[in-house]
From TrEMBL:
Site (Important for catalysis): 142, 192
Organism annotation: Thalassobacter stenotrophicus DSM 16310
Organismal lineage: Bacteria, Pseudomonadati, Pseudomonadota, Alphaproteobacteria, Rhodobacterales
Residues in coiled coil: none
Protein known as: 3-isopropylmalate dehydrogenase
Reactions performed catalytically: (2R,3S)-3-isopropylmalate + NAD(+) = 4-methyl-2-oxopentanoate + CO2 + NADH
Pathway: Amino-acid biosynthesis; L-leucine biosynthesis; L-leucine from 3-methyl-2-oxobutanoate: step 3/4
Length: 362
């Protein structure tokens, strides 16, 4: 049997710097754990534009459709700000998401105890927090028709349409239930079925899909109450399933329960491929951070945690993912900090590669 395949797209700025660290982590798993991947590397974003005049070459797009998982750093930077919209670095990322049809966006909110002081909430409310928001990414209010600004009775009207088909709700609900099975077996679905028909349909379809996942516990919550519960007692949740608009807001809110942008991984999943694995793109939430690029200051943890998500959700290596996460937790507990995590004056910052050294040693 051939090794699972990974396409690495470092991109621009610190994207390339943190991805170099992930390559070391991948190498470690090959050497020490016998976990070998067929790794190929290619260009995306500004780097691809510089080489090919397009932020994503067709050959790269085709390769992304074939591999078991894509790992992306970040795209963009001031150098590309004046480019025409059609070739902007972001277009490369958007094309990947669209053509791979990645409809389930996974954003974990995980609080490492050593960083609990970074949270805006009290330490005991967030310490040990580990929840996952599954946001529908390809439909809903950001895509529904009609949309636009129209003239009506002598004044302008702005219109967006919250629209979901049964099939769209069904497939993202399945992603959430599958995830819950690999986690703590609970899904809380959030909509506004009290005031929105799309919410009524959402609740009906999720309830119907749940029949295929009777081992997972399902609850429903109105999204506004969900927002309150997220900041009141976030540890009550395991997987939160929600639509594109509510998920945009709830996932940003949940992310900030845990502190720094340099710590936040994400995954976007699509339909299962022939081998049963979902199409998948893993990437840190942060951008290319031009203000710190080339200085060895970037925190590689968000990107390394994105690889841990790939281990768990694409490659059925939950134990190895936990091994990596435990090492990161241990390193943070030891007080190892990149600059973005410097909360107090007693610690000094390690470099990007220094952080990886510590994680691999642990
Ligand atoms: P950013 O996420 O790149 O940076 C925001 C702030 O957080 C900066 O001060 C940066 O130094 C810091 N930061 C981010 N990641 C860090 C890390 N790993 N370690 C330490 N500090 C970190 O967002 P910004 O500045 O708004 O955008 C910069 C460029 O990145 C723009 O061209 C933007 O379009 C692009 N971008 C790309 C994204 C992607 O590829 N998914 C997402 C967000 C922005
Ligand atoms: Mg947002």
């Amino acid at each position: 049997m051939s090794n699972p395949s990974l396409l690495i797209l470092p991109g621009d700025g610190i994207g390339a710097e943190v991805m170099a660290e992930v390559q070391r982590v991948i190498g470690w798993f090959g050497d020490k754990r016998g976990l070998a991947f067929d790794v190929s590397e290619d260009l995306v974003g500004g780097a691809a534009y510089d080489a090919h005049g397009t932020p994503l070459h067709d050959d790269t797009m085709a390769r992304a459709q074939e591999v078991d998982a894509v790992l992306l750093g970040a795209v963009g930077g001031p150098k590309y700000d004046d480019l025409d919209f059609s070739v902007k670095p972001e277009r490369g990322l958007l094309r990947l998401r669209k053509e791979m049809d990645l409809f389930a966006n996974l954003r974990p909110a995980q609080c490492f105890d050593a960083l609990a002081d970074f949270s805006s909430l009290k330490k005991d409310i967030v310490a040990g927090l580990d929840i996952m928001i599954v946001r529908e990414l390809t439909s809903g209010s950001y895509f529904g028709e009609p949309r636009g600004i129209f003239e009506e009775d002598g004044q302008r009207v702005g219109i967006n349409t919250q629209r979901y088909t049964e099939a769209e709700i069904d497939r993202v609900a399945r992603s959430a239930f599958e995830l819950a099975r690999r986690r703590n077996g609970k899904v809380c679905s959030m909509e506004k079925a009290n005031v929105m028909e799309s919410g009524i349909l959402w609740r009906e379809v999720v309830t119907a899909v749940h029949k295929d996942y009777a081992d997972v516990e399902l609850s429903h919550m109105y999204a506004d109450n969900g927002a309150m519960q997220l900041v009141r007692a976030p540890k009550q949740f395991d997987v939160i399933l929600t639509d594109n608009l509510f998920g945009d807001i709830l996932s940003d809110c949940a992310a900030m329960l845990t502190g720094s942008l340099g710590m936040l991984p994400s995954a976007s999943l699509g339909a299962p491929m022939e081998n049963g694995r979902p199409k998948a793109l893993y990437e840190p939430v942060h951008g290319s951070a031009p203000d710190i690029m080339g200085q060895g200051k970037a925190n590689p943890i968000a990107c390394i945690l994105s690889f841990a998500m790939a281990l768990r959700y694409s490659f059925d290596q939950g134990t190895e993912a936990a091994r990596l996460e435990t090492a990161i937790e241990g390193v943070l507990a030891d007080g190892v900090r990149t600059g973005d995590l410097l909360g107090d004056a007693n610690t000094t910052a390690v470099s990007t590669s220094g952080m990886t050294d510590a994680i691999l040693a642990k």
